[in-house]
Amino acid sequence: MKVVASLAALLSLVQLATSSPARIPCNNAAASPAPSAPGSFDHQISAYTAKSAFPTSMFASYYNSPASMTAEPRPVITDVAHNSVFPDTLANPTILPLGPSPSEAVYPLPTGAASPNIASTVREELTGIFASSAANCTKCTDALKTAQKLAQQSPKEVPGMLVEMCKKYSYKSASTCEKTYAPQVLGSVYAQIFSYADFSSPDSTDAQYICNIVVGSSTSNCSLPKPRNFDDDYLNKWFRGARTPPASYNINVGEPTQNGKDLRVLHMSDIHVDPRFFVGGEAACTNGRCCRADAYNSTLSNGNFTQGMLPKSNISEVSDYWGNYKCDTPWSLALSSLEAVTPLNGGEDVDMTIHTGDMVVHDLAQYISQDLVKYTHQSLYDSIRSMLGKGPVFNAIGNHDSAPSDFASQGALPDGRSDQLSWDWDNLARLWEAEGWFNHKEAEQVRSHYAGYSVTPRKGLRIIAINTDFWYKNNVFNMIHTQDPDYSGSLRFLTDELFRAEERGERVWIVGHVLTGWDGSNPLDNPTNLFYQIVDRFAPHVIAHIFFGHTHEDQFNVFYSNNGTSRAAEKANAVSFMAPSVTPGNNVNPALRIMDVNATTYEVMDYHQFYTAVPTFPSLPSTDHGPVFEYLYSARTAYGNFTASNANSSHPVLGGIWPDNAPLNATFWAKLTEEMAVRKELVQQFTVFQGRNSPRSPKCITDECVKAKICYMQSGSAILGKQCLQGYGSVQS
């Protein structure tokens, strides 16, 4: 009965060298020193102590002035696009919203006249399906076909059916069912998925994907479809007959800095500011979002209390003014982090910033709205522009930077529904232009490429940003046309821009949010496999580096030639860096990364990781200062000794120490994985860095864990990541 009930809740659930010497024989930075000086961190700063006082001048006015640490400030933010002020009710921690505006609901158009009593007919058919003796996977796919009838004939009845099913089978509480599947929250989106997905074609895999990923494999017993095979014919067409890179390529294309030193580039990710952070509430909750006025821990409270009035005796861990491990970032921590950047850079502005997405809070679906997203983006981008100075900022959109969260709709959707998130792209384009980071022509790309773009901020460097929600498994729009690895056209855009960069002799940084590999738990197989083929074609000569975020952890992925069939260091051709988060959720310390970048090759020479320890936050109100940002490690210093693996390496490093003038390229990181296999304590050190010295990070000292993490590091696609031993990918809990 448990399985039947779970299936009946189906509708509720649907929610050395820069390159390989064999490929690039000339102008290789590993073979000969780059013209500009190697990375150096002048004016070394070991720590920065933030101010205790909130920088009130950051915003013109406040609904709640930051006069004390008993409550978070609530700045008054103007929606410049509409010349109106966002109301205090949007971010007031004690007045949680009832839900987004009903106008945010977007339905599919009916495909024809509705049959009489279609909702009753669908209800009866679903009851029969779940009561049958068919295999669970068959029940799931049959239920989807039945739901499609309702979505195509009477789409506005889908949310009501979802709420009804959710209540009937106790999937959630009655109140949560009504809020979650309201038309303007998730109800109308699922009506689109039911309507547009292909549940009838014999070759379609849409139903299997929905049953495996959205419903869940443990409930549906549906296996994930086999990944698509990109044969020579497919790849020849994709690359338009130009699959072979040029015989030689000059990577020294930039201009040295005036002082001959490296560029300083900030890589920041996952700020997740929570404007509704409630100081003095429950920080270790068992419901919803912690550090909220309605949060509680069920071991000490039954949840029956007025919002913001939970007695102290019923609080297991108090939410602190500066933040907590199970919560997103309060305003105080967000601005202290931005304040720390310039001092940590020796008192000078960074030359540029890469922000790899997710500014908006993690939240329950009913609390996310278009206005909340706009409010967050407007306030944070203004703060970044003010506090980081002259350097341009290049942003990627994250899965939480939309409403509803996780969703991005493709341009090929029918019924004109491709523009349902255009408000988001339009708003970002306007903001990035207004902040002075893009000109008007560049901003127009943001509108037409789902917040993606291709720009050249400096001679010889091209930054290409793409919306990685189109390979994120939690984007339900990806459950449509699942056999097409690029239904959105984003990878076509990326490929075409890489071809243009190759023709111009440029180096490229690819910027996105959701990573492509690691343990394979976040991305989809087909699009990340195609991305892997694209990287293989254009790295290492064009693609210098790839930058992601999303996991909140300090991670990297090495990309190898020939689909990673060999993990030898000489086969490595690209590396992606996953930046650690500013948010401490879940159980990680907030972090900032400043990179030394060669000004002519645009390769990372080193990076410097800083963090602030959350366990120190409770005592800060009794001091005269804010969070202390400490130096955690230098990548070159921590990882540049390959002595132990040198003897058995097919690609030994002279003297065992990575040369000072060699970049931290794919070969470096591939060599590191070889060294880790010999010196297993390095994997534990890496694990400490994953959570930035968090006392809550589990250790990685068993042979199983060590082997698994090395495998994750060597897996740049979801397919490769899933081949690794699972269960060791994250330090969060």
TrEMBL record:
Domain Calcineurin-like phosphoesterase: 263-553
Pfam families on file: Metallophos
Keywords per UniProt: Glycoprotein, Hydrolase, Signal
Gene3D superfamilies to which the protein is assigned, alphabetical: 3.60.21.10
InterPro entries reported for this sequence: ASMase/PPN1_MPP, Calcineurin-like_PHP, Metallo-depent_PP-like
Superkingdom classification of source: Eukaryota
Signal peptide annotation: 1-19
Keyword Signal: yes
Single GO cellular component term: extracellular space
Any one GO molecular function term: phosphoric diester hydrolase activity
Protein name as it appears in the record: Related to acid sphingomyelinase
Species this protein is from: Melanopsichium pennsylvanicum
